Amino acid sequence: MGGKLRFARRLEEGLIKSRPNRFIMEVQLNGARYRCHCPSTGRIGCIRFEDIPCLLSAAPEGRKTPFTVEAISLDPPGARKKGWIGINQTKMNDYVAFFLRRRAMDGMFPRAETVAREVKLGGSRIDFLINGRDYLEVKMPLKDLPCEGHPMYTGPNDAPVDFERMVRHFADVGSAIGGGSRAVFLLCYLYDAPPFAVPPPDVRAARIVNAAREASSRGVEHWQANFAIDPAGVSLIRYFKLHLF
Fold it and tell me: CA 211 to CA 193: how far, in whole Å?
């Protein structure tokens, strides 16, 4: 669907031995051990990072860490064919922009002729402005990955959520609808995730759920896009509208 975004250089497969802090993963590659950049500083799924296969990209010259961990696999290290879960949240907008411009997501934004990035809206910066009138905000959750049953499973994820930023984004995007414009929140996954469902009531998440429900009542749309990542690049698997409320 929409072809493939090909990396300038193929990713290399390594093995994560530990995650000593939020920013670093210790990775074994070709018999050597490297301190690699972890591009997501929050909690990633519910696993302990010991002997977890990964895909690495070479870092730009001059950076302290020689590689960035782009994806992990929940398959055994010795598996010949692995499924990959992308974890680089900083690149997700690049992938979305590529497929928007390739007209691969016309079912969500028909005739996306202009795609502007990082536009100011109220007190927020929104990821995309499509055709000068439609807003698109991208979120890439890593908190709840399909880790149950894995040997390194650590139990339910109780990582904190950035409430204030999410609530502000919902409010600003909801207020932007009018005059023929649309606003979309797009949940993106770098694996073939099941359709997102609103979690059970939780005191900590109630503000976000209420903000999302209010935004929906104003016309904000919720969509999901699943992508696949492998050593050669990124492909769009499927995208669809969510009916959450």
Answer: 24
Structure tokens at 187: 């949940």
Task: Indicate the residue type of 7.
Answer: F
Distances (CA, A) of 105 to 13, 42, 242: 30, 29, 15
Q: Is 50 left (phi over 0), alpha (psi -120 to 50) or beta?
A: beta
Direct distance between the N- and C-terminal alpha carbons of the chain, in angstroms, rounded to an integer: 29
Reported as a single tens digit per residue, the pLDDT across 151-189 is 999 988 666 555 567 677 777 777 777 778 888 999 999
Residue 36 token pair:
């690699």
Q: What is the pTM of this model?
A: 0.91
> Residues 124, 168: contact at Cβ < 8 Å?
yes
Per-residue confidence (pLDDT) for residue 159, from 0 to 100: 60
Query: If 0-12 CB within 10 Å is exposed, 13-18 middle and 19+ buried, where does residue 81 land?
Result: exposed
Side-chain-side CA neighbours of residue 135 (13 Å)? 26
Residue keyed to tokens 């990035």:
117
Amino acid symbol at 91:
K
Give, in order, the Cα–Cα distances in Å from 232 to each of 34, 41, 145: 22, 25, 23
Amino acid type, 104: A
Instruction: Point out the residues of the chain with pLDDT beneath 50.
Output: none
Q: If we measure between CA atoms, which residue out of 201, 197, 220, 94 comes closest to residue 141?
A: 197
